[in-house]
Amino acid sequence: MDLISRVSCLLCVCVLLIFNLASVISASEPIWRQRIRGPDDCKPVVVAHRGASGYVPEHTIGAYAMAITMGADYVEPDLVMTRDGILISRHENELSRTTDVVERPEFAAKRRTQNIDRRNITGWFSEDFTLSEIKTLRAVEAVPRIRPGNARLNKAYDIPTFQEIIDLVKALELSENRTIGIYPEIKYATHFQRLGLAMEPKIVEIFHKNGYIGKNAPVYIQSFEVNNLKELKKMTNLRLLQLFGNKLDMPIDQAELGTGLTFGDMATPAGLANVAKYAAAVGPDKGYIIPRTLTNKLGSPTTFVRDAHAVGLQVHPWTFRAENFYLPIEFQSSNAIYEFGDSVGEIKAFLEAGIDGLFVDHPDILVRVRGPC
């Protein structure tokens, strides 16, 4: 899709939002309670990773809106916190990779170094900004070498709040005539808890205030940490998803507590049985399901999906991307990292392994693979 097509699509979305705004405000109950087609009714579930981030700078209203109009079942915002306790959507709390903060002299004094999750990081951090300051920043493409087309939309969007994303979803549910799910990830949970900015109660409060209550709500709340999900289990009946990082790594809260529990331990049959006590689903790195060989080809499927299903867990691996840079070598189309390869071939291999859904940067591709519901 070229730039003109993208912009045209987004303009259409803006018109739809304006047209539906009054209806959203006056709606008596959430769309999902009205038994309109839900995000879990079609398989595999299409989770728009950071929105349609393969086409538009990630975590922007434009990215989420495009994902929905492409047919995504869920939009996936990563959440961090501002100094005044507002949830905003960024993949990192350090802002220089995805905003124009580096170009803003009025914020130069906010640049500092701090330890986050046992790493020293230098930059500008969301927790040092009020929401009003955040709203003056503009979003930029995170990987411009791989997605130069996206970079042409740099500074087109501001940084959305979690509530603004929910408002967008509610508006587009009306024009789409279907329920759209919301799939937030809690970023840096331990770090924000130490700052007195725990995100978990705030996320639950916002969801409940907006009518998302109970295990049937079109919601998954995800985290790479463990104990915050266990605490969420006590706060809400909304579905939870345990993310899995590198098998040798420990979730940061477990590292801080000295438990020695690794993601690899959690991926065993016994480990998955423990996860199933608090989570409804797991989100593993793709390598847990089909690892890559030393020559960057897809290997043979593991038993991960079967083991997870045996204890009642849904499996939504991450992340599927269309560019050659991210694909196994047999699905690459050329040496150009920004060109699209055969992502459909990779996706089909994982579907054959039995997954229930997947995180994808180009949701239109997966929607076409899945076909009509």
Automatic annotation (TrEMBL):
Q: Which enzyme class?
A: hydrolase
Q: Please, which domain of life does this record's source organism belong to?
A: Eukaryota
In the record, biological process GO terms are: glycerol metabolic process; lipid metabolic process
Tell me if Ribosomal protein is a UniProt keyword of this record.
no
Do you know which CDD domains this protein is assigned to? GDPD_ScGlpQ1_like
The residues forming the signal peptide are 1-27
Q: Name the InterPro entries for this protein.
A: GP_PDE_dom, PLC-like_Pdiesterase_TIM-brl
| Entry EC no(s) | 3.1.4.46
Domain GP-PDE: start-end pairs: 49-364
Key words, A-Z:
Glycerol metabolism, Hydrolase, Signal
Q: Which molecular function term from Gene Ontology is one that the record holds?
A: glycerophosphodiester phosphodiesterase activity
Reactions that this protein is recorded to catalyse: a sn-glycero-3-phosphodiester + H2O = an alcohol + sn-glycerol 3-phosphate + H(+)
Q: In this record, what's one Pfam family?
A: GDPD
Entry-linked PANTHER family? GLYCEROPHOSPHODIESTER PHOSPHODIESTERASE GDPD5-RELATED (PTHR43620:SF7), GLYCEROPHOSPHORYL DIESTER PHOSPHODIESTERASE (PTHR43620)
Report the sequence similarity comment from the record. Belongs to the glycerophosphoryl diester phosphodiesterase family.
Record's protein name: glycerophosphodiester phosphodiesterase
What organism, scientifically named, is this protein from?
Answer: Brenthis ino (lesser marbled fritillary)
